[in-house]
Amino acid sequence: MSTQATAKSFWRTLSPIQWGGFLTLLAVIIWALKFYECFDNGTQSAIDWILSSWVLGIHQDFSHGWMIPFISAYMLVQAFRKNEPTSASGSLHGLWILILGALVFLISVRTFQVRIALGSIPFLLTGTVWCYWGWAAARRCAFPFFYLWLLIPHPILQQATVGMQIIATQLAHHFVALCGIQTIVEGTSITFATGNWDSFQIAEGCSGMRSLMALFMLSCAWGYLADKLSLWKRITLALSAIPLSIIANAFRVGSIFICAEYINPAFASKTWHDWSGLLFFFPASLLGLTLLHGLLAQEIPFLKRRKTIVTRSATYTGKEEQCS
Predict the structure, then answer these.
(1) Smallest Cα–Cα separation from 209: which of 158, 150, 251?
(2) Nearest to 162 by CA among 203, 213, 200, 190
(3) CA distance 178 to 180
């Protein structure tokens, strides 16, 4: 059975009455999240709050958040294209997840915590799918739905920015020392030992937190879409974004000091500082994810080629022995 025919048989499992109930429930969820203005002194809904934070740049470390719903939708489509069930039957067990999501949303309204309201979205969507299409469909939808949690700006991660600044400063200090540049570290400030250029302050933007969150968003989706990896390998690939982003950011910050020493301090503090993230950090991080994925999936080209050569050599030797 083709994928298109399978998809049609799946979506046709609901009767018109069931479709009406599903769409009504979905409309209630959308209304509660988008049009029920109960946050920020009754002036914003949960969706309005997160949209305004992206547009106004209130949470700069989560400026990539607008991409997450699109990535989640893509993963949802891929989940059903690969393993589409031929039939589906609803289950009342999904009501427990749906009720849990509703309780989480009510708690957010009572406590005026908009982040908790956003956190209820995966429970509401997963419970709805479970009620109408059963556990098999809900299980496939679970990760794309809970992936939406990554769009929530978390205060703990914002508070960790200072720690990330210190880590970036220390690693950059040791990196440039290997390049023959002696620096003095004072907190998040680095000064050249001979005074050839003024001190550089590692600001919040250079902490790497924004890049870490963007790379973690990408690595989680990468691990989910990697078919040939087991569960622990997918988790390893997703969590690898943390050390990769820290190391890549340290090299990026160190490259600024190298440009200041060997090229021009003004070029380093302005031009290279503004463009090094795009030209250095993300290519290096993506290369690290690619190599790690190849290592976990055992798809490194030169290893496969070497294995093929050895097999052919052994076969050829065996034929020679038979001829002799």
Answers:
(1) 158
(2) 203
(3) 6
Letter string b/e over residues 166-185, b meaning 16 or more CB atoms within 10 A of that residue's CB: ebbbebbbebbeeeebebeb
pLDDT in tens, 288-308: 888 888 888 876 544 544 444
Closest CA to 247 of 222, 212, 274: 212
Q: How far is CA 189 from the centre of its chain?
A: 30
CB 167 within 8 A of CB 246: yes
pTM of the full predicted structure? 0.78
- Tell me how far apart the alpha carbons of residues 210 and 205 are, in angstroms, rounded to a whole number: 7
Question: 160 and 176 in contact (C-beta within 8 Å)?
Answer: no
| Per-residue model confidence (pLDDT) at position 12 | 57
Query: Measuring CA to CA, which residue among 80, 106, 98, 105 is closest to residue 22?
Result: 98
Distance between CA atoms of residues 100 and 116, nearest Å: 12
Instruction: Indicate the DSSP class of residue 58.
Output: S
Sheet harboring 200-201: ordered strands across? 183-186, 189-192, 200-201
Give the largest Cα separation in the chain, rounded: 92
CA dist 75 and 29 (Å) reads 21
